Amino acid sequence: ELYIIITSDLGLCGSYNSNIINLARTRVKENDKLILIGNKGISQANKLIKNKENILKSFAEVGNKFSYELASLIAGESFDLYKQSIISKINIIYTKFVNNVVQEAEIKTLFPLEIKTDHKSVHTEIEFEPSAEEVLKNAIPLYLSSLIYA
């Protein structure tokens, strides 16, 4: 599995970083791959994983400069790893805003998508131009980029 871990570059933000690192400690296994965003996550990486080769990328001092282009780069590299069967899942660990005092650490699986089937739905065939495969090949990286950027 791949975990994209988003932390801050600086401290003094309450339990923001520690909640993320603690959640990552409970979920990340030794063979999992990591992409780290933020100085605090990078500095704590040795507590998460022993094999430094499993840290694929680190982005420090991103702060207010985090851009859609950077999210697209991360999404593209993540999806390439998935297509090569190096990883089986793309996960993101981040904090979800609850209120000014509380931010909860959360893990979300970005890919593969969990599709809930509704047995009452009507099945109709949809035509894609140029093809369904081509549309998916282009749509999945856009989907991943948007979720990482958000």
Could you describe the 3D structure shown?
It is a single chain. By secondary structure, this protein is α/β, with parallel strands linked by helices. It has a single domain (2-149), classed as ATP synthase, F1 complex, gamma subunit (Pyruvate Kinase, Chain: A, domain 1), CATH 3.40.1380.10. 37% of the residues lie in helices and 21% in strands. The protein is built from five helices and five strands; from the N terminus they run E-H-E-H-H-E-H-E-E-H. The chain has helices spanning 16-27, 39-43, 45-48, 68-83, 132-149; strands at residues 2-6, 33-37, 55-59, 90-97, 103-111. A five-stranded mixed beta sheet has the order 3-2-1-4-5. Helix 4 packs across helix 5 (132-149). The longest helix is centred in the C-terminal third of the chain and has 18 residues, at 132-149. The protein is globular and about 55 Å long. This is F0F1 ATP synthase subunit gamma. One of its GO terms (molecular function) is proton-transporting ATP synthase activity, rotational mechanism. Pfam families: ATP-synt.
